[in-house]
Design goal:
about 325 residues; alpha+beta; membrane; transmembrane helix; Polysaccharide chain length determinant N-terminal domain-containing protein; transmembrane
Length: about 325
């Protein structure tokens, strides 16, 4: 007679009973652990409450007397100086990390120990990037063929070509224009090479503006001459001659283009005042602190760890003495 089904049924019952015992044992162990935690809290309730209150008071004191502030600078790296800008920020960060106060004070920073790491990132603006140069659009299309356009726009190489870049950092206590902001901007503009480039480019822009102004005067003279002919009542044949041979519409369009270019050149001269032009400075934005939450929990955690350590040490010491006596 075959007894295999009965044996399988018995084995399953044994397995289920073992699993059930293990689960019950696990719940009992967990219940014991929870009970021990509750007992520990009740036993040390006064100490835990005191530590909690002390932690809140200490956190409040630190938040009041050692406030941190965030600062943001929006800058334009001119004359192809984007790589120089990022390299200079990296250099300053390395000196902050090394706590090289001599170097940092040499930059004009009066309180170098209170300044945190500088963070620089481009302000992604593909519309202006494409509008400034038509070839930029073709470049983006070419680069996007092998990947996502979003990745291309935020790519490190592409992003350095955007006009605006954001530099953020924090200080302990408020920063002033004199002791922090201007020294930092001055250090970013400290480059003999780019000063020479700046001088020549500004000179070229001014020459172009003078030439455009002369051309505008000549166009105005032509238009004034035409207006005088019309006011004197010239014959229709002369008007047709002017319209067909002087190409008046093209002259008017050329004037419009030159006037627009002159406006753009004036804006360029404003931006070209510095190698790294500061567009916006937002300083002393108070940062929220979690000291009032972290310090109480930290003190209680240290107390619990200390209690566990001394309990473990006491237990092991007793076992050691027992083995020594035996």
């Amino acid at each position: 007679m075959n007894t295999t089904p009965k044996q399988n049924s018995d084995d399953q019952e044994i397995d289920l009973s073992q699993i059930s015992r293990k689960i019950n044992q696990g719940f009992q162990n967990m219940g014991g652990f929870i009970f021990d935690c509750i007992q520990f809290v009740f036993k040390n309730a006064i100490i835990i409450a005191v530590l909690f209150i002390v932690g809140i008071g200490l956190g409040y004191f630190l938040d009041t007397n050692q406030k941190s502030y965030k600062h943001e600078l929006i800058v334009i790296p001119n004359f192809g100086s984007a790589d120089y800008l990022y390299g200079k920020v990296e250099l300053i960060n390395s000196k902050i990390k090394e706590r090289d106060t001599v170097f940092l004070k040499g930059l004009g920073l009066k309180y170098p120990k209170k300044i945190s790491k500088l963070e620089i990132q481009p302000i992604v603006d593909p519309y202006n990037f494409i509008r400034d140069r038509e070839e930029n659009f073709e470049l983006l299309k070419l680069m996007a063929e092998d990947g996502s356009i979003d990745k291309v726009l935020t790519d490190k190489i592409t992003s350095k070509n955007y006009n605006y870049h954001s530099i953020t950092f924090s200080t302990k206590g408020k920063a002033t224009d004199e002791n922090t902001i201007q020294p930092l901007l001055n250090s970013l503009n400290d480059s003999e090479y780019f000063r020479l480039i700046q001088k020549n480019i500004v000179s070229n822009v001014k020459v172009k503006m003078e030439y455009n102004e002369q051309t505008l005067n000549q166009i105005n003279a032509v238009l004034n001459s035409f207006a005088n002919e019309v006011s004197r009542g010239s014959s229709n044949s002369n008007l047709v001659y002017y319209n067909e041979n002087t190409q008046l519409n093209e002259v008017l369009q050329a004037k419009y283009n030159l006037v627009s270019e002159q406006g753009n050149r004036r804006i360029e001269l404003v931006n070209y005042e510095k190698i790294i032009k500061d567009v916006s400075v937002i300083a002393n934005i108070e940062k929220g602190s979690k000291n009032k939450l972290i310090l109480p929990l930290l003190l209680i955690f240290i107390f619990v760890i200390g209690k566990l350590f001394f309990g473990f040490y006491k237990n092991q010491s007793a076992k050691f003495k027992e083995r020594t006596v035996n």
